[in-house]
Each structure stands twice: as structure tokens, then as C-alpha cells.
Amino acid sequence: MEDLLDRGVLRARLEGLLPDKNLLLGAMGAASFDLSALVETAAGWGERLAKHLDDTTWLVQAALARGEHVLLEGAQGTLLDLDHGSYPFVTSSNAVAGGATTGGGIGPLQVDEVMGVMKAYATRVGSGPFPTELLDEVGDRIRERGNEVGTTTGRPRRVGWFDAVPVRFAVAVNSVSSIMLNKIDILSGLESIPLCVAYQVDGRRLDRWPSSAAVLGRATPIYERFEGWSEPIHDVRSLAGLPDAARRYVSAVEELAGVPIVLVSVGPERTQTIERAWRPMRRQPVRVA
What we know:
CATH topology of the largest domain: Adenylosuccinate Synthetase, Chain A, domain 3
Helix content: 25-40%
């Protein structure tokens, strides 16, 4: 972005880029870029954006030095991570918590808490192995009730039962210290709720997330079944207020994940959240010279 503020640097950058780009455009029968015209256009962007540009590393570091809370929200999920995800069905960046340090301008020791955000069931957009996927009317019901469509594409998400195998993997590679469990209300009305605790692959039990997509494609879920609940829970604001079956399900998810569930969502509104007695750790502010 800083290059937009200096015409000399901008021209030098574009001089190195345009030959290849124009060659590609020409091969596609498209018009090529004129260097001088592009420099002026991009410099105009720089003039408009100049007052909004800053070194965000020092913005964040200054906030931490003042003892303020800094929240970094990650998009997508662990299994879409370029390095740790179910390759090749991944995105082009690091979606794990470690990406907060490389993208946020902070060091690993400045991270106090890592909250894992997950649903009470599993979803996925796009291709790739999905052992607990539901291809029946139950899956359709969960998808419809949960409004499971891609945020930008509107493409229906694939839906399945909660899978503890990738959850344990996500907890490990992200150093998850607490969990927010969303959309448990969507499961209301189901007589029985299967929860995947491990896989069976080629006749053997597999408790760890496999690195091979081929192995994952042969995985059969091993389920534990939990009694469902029929009561609506949108107005519940404490774990004690949940139906017994719902509490048992939350406890099972927590035990399998290995970290505490500190927030439970029972509806789409901010107010529809159950908060357990929990406070984030806070280290002493880092002093920046």
C-alpha cells in the first residue's frame, strides 16, 4: 500500500510486472496496460487512501502496551489451512491461530487466549472427504434450520454430525484454550444425536486426524449416540436451564475436545448466549520503546 504513495517506486514496481501481465493478456486477446496511465491511476488510489494508511503492527503493539484487549478473528477454519488442512481441499493462506501472529504483527508470547469457535454439528463448503456428512432429510433439516449457506456465494453447505477427530486436531494445532459452541438450538427436536468419537479405517480404529486425504476418504465414523431433546432453548441463559439431554451433549463435546466450553449459543442474537464463569488470562502490558 505504501508503494501507492510514491510515484517513483510505483513506476519501478509496475515496470517489473507489466511485461509478463501484458504478455498473458495478449495471449487471451485482451487489451494490455499502458505503464504511464496505470501509474497515474494507482497514484490516484494512493491519494484517496493516504489518510487511512498506517503501520498496523505498531497500532496493535501500542494497544497492547496500554494494556488494552486486542481481538483477532480468523476466517474459515483449521481444515482449510494451507499447511494443516485437508489438502488439496484448502484455501491459500494459514487459517489457524498462528496466522494471527504473522498477519497481526504480534509475537507468540503476546497471545493470551485462543478461543475455538465451532458448531454443535459439522459443516463444510466445497469438495473433500467428510466422514460424518448427512445426505438425508435430517441433513436437509439441519441445513435449513441453521441457514447453512456460504456467506458470499450463497452455496449450500454440506452438513454432518459433530466430529471429535478433527476437533481434537484443531485444538492441538491452534493451542485452543477455550471453546464457543454455536447453534446447539438447531439440534432441538431430534430424537437421537450421534457424535463421532473416532474412525474405523481398513479394520482398525483411528483416533487421530489422518494426514492422508486418501485414508480419510476410507474412514467410517464410530458414533456414540445421545438422547435428543424436544424443548425449545432460545430463551435459556444458563447451563442449568438447558434440558438434561442438551447438558449431557455439551459435556460430551467438552470432554472430547479436552478444553472448557465457556460460551454456548442458543440462537442467532448476541443476547442468546450462555456464558460460564470464565475470565481471560491477562499478562502484564508489553512496553514498547
